[in-house]
Design brief:
The chain is of the alpha/beta class and 394 residues long. It has two domains: 8-268, 3-Layer(aba) Sandwich (Rossmann fold), CATH 3.40.50; 273-375, Orthogonal Bundle (Tyrosyl-Transfer RNA Synthetase), CATH 1.10.240. The chain has helices at 9-14, 27-34, 41-51, 57-60, 70-78, 98-114, 124-130, 135-150, 164-167, 172-184, 187-194, 202-212, 221-224, 240-253, 291-301, 310-316, 324-332, 336-348, 353-376, 380-387, and strands at residues 37-38, 64-68, 83-89, 118-122, 159-163, 230-236, 259-263, 267-268, 271-275. Bound molecules: tryptophan (TRP).
């Protein structure tokens, strides 16, 4: 079977969420199947009231669409109590693409709104287990990807980044929590959640305990002084099974269950039913693409909801719901009014596909260029500041 949507989607496949290539992801069905909560108007209103900030357009537009226990986090904040943010990434050799940015952009915003510490896990060990990659390569990829992540705009004063292959051996409390977690989950349960089979290497079967451990503050005594602090995890929806397991374990360990906010996937240029895959250079816009490459990719590959001819388009109008340039604007154009105007004029046939693509290019190109300018400034010294085992602001 070809896994066009990448390794990560396997978890969704196991859960019967989508069959094969070409079958889009039904996010409402996912909420039901996974037993999460929809991010609804009520939550968004409460979020704005409690934080005094306008909700991020990712929330307003359903890009972050689902959650677990977000109301608890808002109640903590209301009561003046701190929590921390935890997110992560499985490093890959290629440069990150636009889709990888979504959880990190949102995490950065959450960190600014709540003023809380952030922990980022780079699961280089996961890649060794799942891919044909050596330990040394995985570590190198982790450090390169860390620079990509730092360039989103994080601050070493309140952000700790670690890669499993180097950090875990230096932190007994982390390993001890891993062992506590490992003792709470049977092989049968892990099989049910992750679909492991008899020929999977044993490293894969213990891996979920490594992704779960950062959700407990006691894994990081140098940050939290062994205090129990609540955790909020922003992640793409495919990571939910790890944290469903973590939440079950938390109850057994008498620790707080981590709260979650889940994102949808940024679709591939070729169409909404495909997630962007790092292995197909034409499916995605990469963070190191040039302005010319961005322009070419959008013009050539971005699936269009427009009509076959200009005449037909003027007469019948386009379909913004399937149009990838429009979809990308919902992710990257902050101005609600302008976005709505584009939607209605595209639908009425007034705005042509070429015009819409031009707007998408105009929005995405400076976004990537500004990112690249920040990325160029991330030196090895800055990198090591983030990785230092140290106290960060709580
Ligand atoms: N398994 C994730 C991936 O392959 C990486 C990861 C580790 C992660 N911890 C996380 C993602 C916490 C989100 C939240 O990308």
């Amino acid at each position: 079977m070809i896994w066009l949507l990448g390794e990560r989607k396997k978890i969704l496949l196991i859960h019967g969420m989508c069959q094969e290539i070409g079958d889009g992801i039904d996010y409402d069905k996912l909420i039901k199947r996974f037993g999460c909560q929809k991010i609804d108007e009520e939550l968004i209103t409460r979020f704005e009231r409690v934080t005094g900030k306008k909700a991020h357009h990712f929330l307003r537009r359903g890009i972050f669409f689902s959650h677990r226990d977000m109301h608890n986090i808002l109640s903590l904040h209301e009561a003046g109590k701190k929590f921390y943010l935890y997110t992560g990434r499985g490093p890959s050799s290629e440069s990150m693409h636009l889709g990888h940015m979504i959880p990190f952009m949102f995490t950065k915003w959450l960190q600014d709104v709540f003023n809380v510490p952030l922990i980022i896990q780079l699961t280089d060990d996961e890649k060794v287990m799942w891919k044909d990659i050596k330990i040394e390569q995985a570590r190198t990829m982790a450090f390169n990807n860390a620079k990509d992540i730092i360039a989103v705009g994080f601050d070493p004063g309140n952000t700790f980044i670690f890669n499993d292959l180097d950090f875990i051996g230096k932190c007994p409390s982390f390993y001890q929590n891993m062992v506590r977690i490992q003792k709470c989950v049977t092989y049968n349960q892990a099989k049910g959640i992750f679909g492991f089979g008899d020929s999977d290497v044993i490293g894969k079967i213990t891996f979920p305990s490594i992704e779960a451990a950062p959700a407990f503050s006691t894994s990081f005594p140098f940050i939290f002084d062994n205090k129990v602090v609540a955790c909020l995890i922003p992640c793409a929806i495919d990571q939910d099974p790890y944290f469903r397991m973590t939440r079950d374990v938390a109850a057994r360990l008498k620790l707080p269950k981590p709260a979650l906010v889940h994102s949808t996937f940024l679709p591939a240029l070729q169409g909404a039913q495909h997630k962007m895959s790092a292995s197909d250079p034409n499916a995605s816009i990469f963070l190191n693409d040039t302005a010319k490459q961005i322009k070419n990719k959008i013009n050539k590959y971005a699936f269009s909801g427009g009509r076959a001819t200009v005449e037909e388009h003027r007469l019948l109008g386009g379909n913004p719901d399937v149009d990838i340039s429009f979809k990308y604007l919902t992710f990257f154009m902050e101005d609600d009014e302008r976005l709505e105007e584009i939607r209605t004029t595209y639908k009425s046939g007034e705005l042509l596909t070429g015009d819409l693509k031009r707007v998408a290019i105009e929005i995405i190109t400076p976004f990537i260029q500004q990112y690249q300018a920040r990325r160029a400034k991330v030196t090895d010294d800055i990198l090591s500041e983030f990785f230092k085992i140290r106290k960060i602001v709580v």
